[in-house]
Amino acid sequence: MAGREWFEDEEFWDAYAPTMFDEERWAEVTAVVDGIVAMVGLERGAAVLDACCGPGRHSLELAARGYEVTGVDITDSYLEAARESAIGMPNARFLHADIRSLDLVGSFDLALNLYTSFGYFADQAEDALALRRIRAALRPGGSLVLETNGKETAVKYFTEGEVFERAGYVVRTEFSVVGAWEGIQNHWIVSKDGRTTDKSFVLRLYSGTELRAALLEAGFTEVKLFGDVFGAPYDQRAKSLVAWARA
């Protein structure tokens, strides 16, 4: 693994998948997609890019509704699971790609980056590059919906860690603040049947105004911020930071 970034460790994602994508996470997909479709006014048959699609939760739902969906991820096992679930769906394809090197210029009406999949690159300039690549993949007037853990919500809901059981696994988490709330240091220990996977990583945090500025700098023409994918305000009651950016 020398020279590779932490999120390229497929063993970690395989170990983490049962707790990250449990039944509750799959059950929420219909409502999440309902919210996004209503938010952007997505027309049936539109082309959608699911950037960092994981096992394809949102991609599969969108394809089932008749949209032309391309999911991209760097974890092969997740892509294999998505492709297996998409058998019989000719309007769903899944590609192995790093969002920093996307080469799908002008191909999509909507891009998604959901479930806190943004902010993990070691250099903030790499975040900016990813946003530019996603912007380039959109057709004129297309939209990006990006959901992450905003700096404001991270402060509000911060905990130093917890231990819980999910999907037959014991999960122990430890969190600490990096710098002046520039990020959150995450330490995850996932155990089952005597086998343990241990991983540490940092999630870079953006405030609402910082994320808006980054999206405008990436070439988006308009940015609206919400507290969830259903259009709630990004205020003291927000649960997450959702940006709707127009190309």
3D structure, described in words:
By secondary structure, the chain is an alpha/beta fold. It is 31% helix and 32% strand. The strands form two sheets. Strands 3-2-1-4-5-11-10 form a seven-stranded mixed beta sheet, with helices on both faces. Helix 3 crosses helix 4 (57-64). The longest helix is centred in the middle third of the chain and has 14 residues, at 124-137. It is globular and about 50 Å long. The mean pLDDT is 95.
Entry summary:
Helix content is about 30%, strand content about 30%. It has about 250 residues and is an alpha/beta fold. The strands form two sheets. A seven-stranded mixed sheet has the order 3-2-1-4-5-11-10, sandwiched between helices. Strands 6-7-8-9 form a four-stranded antiparallel sheet, with helices on one face.
Descriptive labels:
single chain, 247 residues, four-stranded antiparallel β-sheet, 32% strand, globular
Q: What is the percentage of strand-forming residues?
A: 25-35%
The main β sheet shows up as: 7 strands, mixed
Number of continuous helical runs: 8
Order of helices and strands: HHHEHEHEEHEHEEEEHEE
Order of the strands making up the biggest sheet: 3-2-1-4-5-11-10
What is the radius of gyration?
17 Å
Question: What topology emerges from the helices and strands here?
Answer:
Blueprint (H helix, E strand, L loop, with lengths): L9 H11 L2 H5 L1 H12 L6 E5 L5 H8 L3 E6 L2 H10 L6 E5 L11 E6 L10 H14 E11 L2 H7 L3 E6 L2 E10 L4 E10 L2 E10 L3 H10 L4 E5 L14 E6 L1
Parallel strand pairs: 1-2, 1-4, 2-3, 4-5
Antiparallel strand pairs: 5-11, 6-7, 7-8, 8-9, 10-11
